[in-house]
Specification:
The complex is a heterodimer. By secondary structure, chain A is mainly alpha-helical. Chain A has 10 helices and no strands. Among the domains of chain A are: 69 residues, Arc Repressor Mutant, subunit A, CATH 1.10.10; 52 residues. Chain A starts with a helix and ends in a 5-residue tail after the last helix. Chain B is of the alpha+beta class. Chain B has 2 domains: 165 residues, outer membrane lipoprotein receptor (LolB), chain A (Clam), CATH 2.50.20.10; 101 residues, Phosphorylase Kinase, domain 1 (2-Layer Sandwich). The N and C termini of chain B lie far apart (105 Å). Helices cover 23% and strands 42% of the residues of chain B. Chain B is globular. Chain B is built from 6 helices and 19 strands. The chains are: A mainly alpha, B alpha+beta. Chains A and B meet through α8, α9 and α10 of A and α3, β1, β2, β3 and β4 of B.
Chain lengths: 187, 341
């Protein structure tokens, strides 16, 4: 697992990957245990940051499923009675199975692949929020470029007080207050 | 007349000797130059000087009632705001409402400013003491302004379907911003304003897209108060000598014009100095030991702030000036113990 692969994987998780690199990154993910572990870690980190529950048994889920399947006993000998019953019903069963298959092909399968309205909305949101999309809605301009909300509030208060007390405020009329009101706040 | 007769007439003497003919030409030229000079003088007299136009703008902003829609362009973002400015019985009522994004409002009434930036973010500021008077009494001082700015007429322009005269306030150095005001010929109101830095493109632009003048109710607010400490020539003595804070070095042109002090919501004392060069201004806030304080510098649009610790006090400098200016003010502040009475 190279650092470049790890970076591409991180971009894939964040939805920021170059579309041309998606196929190669997925191929590498399928063949590298290190990348699989990194993939899992990135999702666990994301879930933790979103305050989603992180359950221990979900870790290494693919490996656990593979182990369980491998442990299941496989019966290779079919009983003679069962073989005779199947032989007698053969032509009829074939017709029924063919009818069921046709029914699924005509009615059920298109419904399965038709996205629900919620899924369409979700898809649209993904497209809209993709950072690489030049048509995404712009984020509000940051007011003070500081992390602490209390400090941001204090600077806002200082600014409004400054505008109110400054000598030239009367000359510039409403203009000084535009900075305070004109910037959106993300809170 | 035959052609030979006309040629003969051209050759004939004009009745003036050559010397007298030259005198007549000189006389005509003199009269012509005098007329042109007179016309120019009349034209100059009919157009008010740029500083007079700025004074008229200041008066119009203070005394007229108007409402309209303005667009505000900053950091390649466009905002639309609604403004209502009413003068009633000598009191100014002003309201700004953002029409884009989350609703933000600012209301200015009876010397009190209430700003609501979100449901949980509300700022309320009272006009205090000198500051309140200063707000209403300020007037342009061309002599002071000329030290650090050049005021220049920039010509005519059409804004919001109205005729305007553009006036530039051009800074003489990089420590302050410049302005381009497009002043309505009829009312004197600034219909467009460009905040200018050192680059050719404006940093911010504000423009009315619609404007309605409202009828005046009652008297206009009192204009200039000659006794006010607003004028920089009267600024000495604004900051008490007894204070422990001194400004050892300030950016050229800036000097203290106001001092105030109060206690914040947590009961902590806050000292407030306002420094000005006659147009641009900077506030210096001194706090004892606040829970949060700015370390370093930051900005919101063209407004910069710089903060740091001086003698176990938190100092925060805020103003619509370039970063270099707030940093220079912060660097220049000194703690002089024992000065307080």
């Amino acid at each position: 697992m190279s650092e470049q692969q790890r970076q591409h994987l991180s971009d894939l998780v964040d939805g920021e990957i170059d579309p041309a690199l998606v196929h190669a990154t997925l191929s590498a993910l399928g063949s590298s245990a290190g990348l699989k572990a990194a993939w899992e870690r990135y999702h666990l980190i994301g879930a933790a940051m979103r305050s989603e529950p992180v359950r221990e048994e979900y870790r290494e889920l693919a490996a656990l499923v593979s182990e369980r399947i491998a442990a299941e006993p496989v019966s290779l000998v079919r009983s003679a009675a069962r073989r005779r019953w199947t032989k007698r019903l053969g032509p009829f069963a074939t017709a029924v199975l063919a009818a069921c298959a046709a029914f699924f092909a005509v009615f059920a399968v298109p419904q399965l692949f038709k996205p629900s309205p919620d899924a369409a909305v979700s898809l649209n949101r993904q497209v809209a929020s993709s950072p690489s999309d030049p048509f995404r809605l712009p984020r509000p301009a940051q007011r003070w470029h500081v992390e602490e909300p209390a400090l941001e509030s204090k600077l806002d208060r200082f600014l409004v007080n400054h505008q109110e007390q400054s000598p030239a405020t009367g000359m510039k009329g409403f203009l000084p207050y535009l900075t305070v009101v004109g910037y959106e706040t993300e809170r | 007349m035959k052609r030979s007769d006309s040629l003969r007439a051209l050759d004939a003497p004009t009745g003036f000797p050559p010397q007298r003919s030259a005198d007549a030409v000189t006389l005509y030229l003199f009269l012509l130059v005098s007329l042109v000079a007179l016309w120019c003088a009349e034209a100059a007299a009919s157009d008010p000087a740029p500083t007079e136009q700025l004074e008229r703008m200041s008066t119009a902003l203070r005394s007229l009632s108007y409402e309209g829609t303005i667009v505000y362009l900053h950091e390649r973002r466009l905002e639309t705001l609604r403004i209502v400015h009413r003068v009633e019985e000598g009191q100014v009522h002003e309201q700004l409402i953002s029409l884009n994004g989350p609703v933000r409002t600012l209301t200015r009434e009876k010397g009190r400013v209430i700003c609501r930036l979100s449901d949980s973010h509300r700022i309320s500021v009272n006009g205090r003491g000198v500051g309140k008077d200063v707000l209403h009494a300020w007037s342009l001082d061309p002599g002071t302004l000329g030290d650090h700015y050049r005021v220049q007429a920039l010509g005519a322009a059409r804004v919001a379907n109205r005729q305007t005269e553009a006036v530039g306030i051009i800074p003489r150095d990089a420590l302050r911003y410049g302005y381009r005001f497009y002043l309505d010929r009829e009312s004197g109101l600034p219909l467009k304003s460009d905040l200018m830095g050192q680059e050719a493109d404006p940093i911010e632009q504000v423009m009315f897209t619609s404007l309605s003048l409202l009828p005046l109710r009652g008297s206009a607010p009192v204009a200039t108060d000659p006794a006010s400490p607003r004028r920089r020539s009267d600024a000495e003595g604004v900051v008490p000598e007894s204070l422990v804070w001194r400004f050892a070095s300030l950016p050229p042109g800036f000097s203290p014009v106001m001092y105030d002090h109060w206690r914040d919501a947590g009961g902590q004392p806050v000292e407030h100095f306002v420094l000005s060069d006659g147009l641009a201004s900077v506030s210096v806030y001194v706090e004892g030991d606040p829970q949060e304080g700015l370390q370093g510098s930051t900005h919101i649009g063209a407004v910069y702030a710089a903060g740091g610790r001086v003698a176990d006090h938190q100092i925060t400098v805020v103003g619509e000036v370039p970063l270099e200016t707030v940093e220079a003010v912060l660097t220049g502040i000194r703690y002089v113990p024992g000065a307080r009475r």
